[in-house]
Amino acid sequence: MDLKNVVESKSDKASNKLKRIKEFLNFIIPSCIGVFLFMTPIYFNNQITIPVAILSRWFQNSLINFLPPVIFLVIITTGIGTVITKVFKPVYFLKNKFLNNLFNVSLAWVVVRIIAAVFIVMTFYEIGPEMVYSPYTGGLVFEELLLILFSIFFFAGLFLPLLLDFGLLELIGMLLAKFMRPVLKLPGRSAIDCIASWLGDGTISIILTNRQYEGGFYTKREAAVISTTFSLVSITFTLVVINTVGLGHMFLQYYLTINVACIAAIFILPKLPPLSKQPNIYIDGTPLIVEKEESIEGVSSFSRGITAAINKAKGKSLLKIIFVDGIKNVLDMWFAVIPSIMGIGTIALIIAEHTPIFQILGLPFVPLLMLLGVPEAMTAAQALIAGFADMLLPAIMANGIESDLTRFIIAATSVSQLVYLSEVGAVILASKIPLTLKDLFIIFIQRTFITLPIIAIMARLFF
Fold it and tell me: What percent of the chain has pLDDT over 70?
């Protein structure tokens, strides 16, 4: 081999090595930023949280006077845009993929968006029946929940692609497939959903799950199971709940209890209908392909994961993903989910506050609570069933209960119930995840019956 060929060969090797380094950096840098933002616990203002939550809180506090009018306009615009699209069918809206997905919804969601628009007008201007805009119904949804979610959706929409689009899930999926698939019948990448919500917020996990389902990475069953079992409540919110019932000094015992109860639900709930009845097919109708995660002889899971991650990130621009795709994600979350929460959440809270429905529905829990030796069982049962409307409602209702044991049980169970309508349930219903309102109520009852005995038994150890 002459000198010229040797030089060219070395140049080619150097060029290929530089190319591989660039491809690896294109995977590792965005993924590390995503892990830092969504999955790195930080002790901030005397509580454990994650950077995205800190950014969301800063965003909310900085724009506290501007956010309510903006949310008002988002809900009104969604309602008007949906009615125009369904009634007049403008060609531009129907041909534009983004606008068509946003406004061309089913009849049920048209009704929800119209109701949300009516509710936001009544709440914003405090007109009409007070039960709609009171601080415990529409006022609670608008002035507290939506302000928080609006801010969370902004940063989640912008930065979730760092977890989704640059190969991290491919790597995690390969590494955890040998545990997740045989033990939980779920893909390895679903572990990210749990970690994101455990450290951050349950709605972040549902958004992440829905994106994966729409992208063809989860089947109908997997998406349904993950969104109703893995979307655990953040550490931050559990602190709010336990302090609301006046037992903040017992946070460690409380959080241990929640984790044990929720882990039990993860193993039991998917074996019961309606989750067990969900078909294992992808959104396009194709059946589950487990082979995607099967091992290859002589190649480690880590090596395959790194290769898959680099291939996923190849050719993608960080700035484009954040500022083009990310902004589309933000708008989709704001215009599709925010009105749903205003409509469904307000209705649920009106029912809880102004009708005896939850009192009646709570009656089946009374014998179980009495069997478990829980004091003030009747009041506790009403508080527990109210959790279907909003997760904080049981804790608020528990303030009138004298027994520390009962308040502890209510606080732990309300967090473990998970699928409350004012937020998590509404986000699930507004997503493509194949679960109905009836399914969510059944899952809520199942989670209560599964977690309540475990929580009551553990509570006895601490009182």
Answer: 89
